[in-house]
Design a protein that fits this description.
This protein has 249 residues and is an alpha+beta fold. Helix content is 16%, strand content 58%. The longest helix has 32 residues.
Length: 249
């Protein structure tokens, strides 16, 4: 009997230790997974729409964001464009490739390069900016652009969403551009260049993956930029009826 006692005690102690070791291993695995950066990727079109203006101009417009990375570092390809349907030509075409890192709980900093194909010669810019959520839940995207010739400009995009219900959402947008130097070849003067304001009422059909909307957009050019547009026989102000969808992949 004395010989069996140590064996029984050892067996009982061993069996009691196994769950403890398993629990410890699970905790280590869980902690490691939480500390490991979570890779994210996807694509989103905030605007994918058809516009019809008060002077019968028809445009196809998009604003897309393709991204890959982690919460600590993302690489983003941002694309915007306006396509004149009747003329079958691009009025605006802008692409940015930027890296983005967090600088606070609500804002990220980004830097990269921007390629433009406006009416006139192509342009390339260095990009430095911030994007995030400002107080009162305004989404802000502010950027500074410097061309290889030293021409400098800044752009501010602001967006606010008003939820009537979990599905019906009214989105207000403001895009403003300011130039600190003149670039007459592409019709840009110093000072406030242009603004675009919009109101879009959307209905969330598939958990924000597909949200069709209707709305109205107002575009206006200012100062020397407006003078350049008039000299070329163009307009300086337009109203558009809008129909489109917000898409997330």
């Amino acid at each position: 009997m004395k010989l069996w006692t140590p064996l029984v005690v050892s067996t009982v102690l061993g069996l009691s230790v196994i769950p403890t070791l398993a629990f410890a291993q699970e905790r280590v695995r869980d902690t490691t997974e939480r500390k490991a950066p979570l890779k994210v990727w996807g694509a989103q079109f905030e605007e994918f729409e058809y516009r019809y203006s008060d002077d019968d101009e028809e445009l196809g417009v998009w604003s897309g964001d393709f991204f890959y990375g982690t919460d600590e570092l993302k690489v983003r390809w941002l694309t915007k464009g306006e396509y004149a349907i009747e003329e079958q030509a691009y009025e605006k075409l802008e692409n940015q490739l930027v890296g983005q890192v967090p600088i606070s709980d609500f804002f990220d900093a980004k830097a990269g390069v921007r390629f433009d194909t406006p009416e006139g010669p192509d342009r390339t810019y260095a990009v430095l900016g911030v994007a995030g959520l400002a107080p009162q839940w305004f989404e802000i995207d502010a950027n500074l652009y410097v061309s290889k010739d030293g021409d400098t400009s800044a752009a501010l995009d602001a967006e606010y969403e008003l939820l009537f219900t979990n599905y019906w959402i009214l989105t207000a947008t403001l895009d403003a551009t300011v130039a600190f130097s003149e670039d007459k070849e592409i019709g840009v003067g110093t000072g406030l260049v242009s603004t675009e304001t919009g109101l879009r009422l959307s209905y969330d059909l598939i958990d924000r993956a597909f949200s069709p909307y209707v709305g109205v957009v107002h575009e206006r050019k200012y100062g020397n930029t407006a003078d350049f547009a008039r000299a070329d026989g163009g307009g300086t102000e337009s109203w558009f009826a809008v129909v489109g969808a917000r898409l997330t992949f």
